[in-house]
Amino acid sequence: MDHLPESPPSHPTLQADFTWRKWQAVISDRSNPSKPIYTVHYRPFAISSQIIYKSAADDTTIGTGTLHAFSINADYKLHGRKGQIKAFKRWKTAYTHLSSAYSDTDTSLTTMTWTSSSNFKTWDFICLDSQQMPVAKFSANLWAVKKIGQIEFLGPKATSAAVRDEIVVTGLTLMYCMVLRTSSLLSFFGAIFARPGPIKSDA
User: Fold this and answer.
1) pTM for this model (two decimals)
2) pLDDT for 78-105, tens place per residue?
3) What pLDDT is recorded for position 31?
């Protein structure tokens, strides 16, 4: 029996393909997978693991993510601006970061919240705006060998390039952070001694 073709997504959607041999992911528009938009280079096996996000068009670095062996928070840099993805809860996937892309002004930042849900097959990371409305969803395939997931953008800023950059950097950094937390004994003790809570505007 022929397989039915996948229906096109109703919202702008990126897909992430991962190469384990090179610890590298290629992110492209789901409607045009042959043309990469980002490359993601993961450097594990260090006290502070680093993730490097590059534009596929010119190989320039747009951002980085840093994971820590003990701390359950993660750090990132996006177009030169440093930020933190801070745990809001100790044992649940609830994180916040300060956003410039979703802010209504050029001089202030707005707080974004990440939550998650999971089943046997996928792990969904959902980004909520300051009004707790979903603006993006990163669905990670727990059993995928290559196609590790997709990022769907929602709301009035779904087509913004600045939003796309921010969600890619913060969303994938959070995913790698949670993978580390679920597989590391140090991260378990880090959660015990962590001080979760709302992110501060100077973080």
Assistant:
1) 0.83
2) 999 999 998 887 667 789 999 999 998 8
3) 87
* Rounded alpha-carbon distances, angstroms, from residue 107 to 82, 99, 102, 110, 159: 15, 11, 12, 10, 22
- Indicate the DSSP class of residue 23: T
The one-character DSSP state at 158 is T
DSSP element (H, E) containing 124: strand 122-128
Q: Which residues of 146-169 are buried (b: 16+ CB within 10 A; e: fewer)?
A: eebbbbbbbeebbebeebbbbbbb
Residue 9 has pLDDT above 60, yes or no: no
Q: How many CB atoms lie within 10 A of CB 9?
A: 15
Backbone angles phi, psi at 124, to 5 degrees: -100, 130
Maximum C-alpha span of the chain: 58
**In 142-191, which ranges are E strands?**
147-153
Residue count of the chain: 203
SS3 51: strand
The answer for residues whose C-beta is within 8 angstroms of residue 40's C-beta and 6 or more apart is 16, 24, 25, 26, 27, 51, 52, 53, 54, 172
**Residue 202: its pLDDT value, please?**
53
* pLDDT value of residue 48: 66
6 has pLDDT over 50: no
Cα 166 → chain centroid: 8
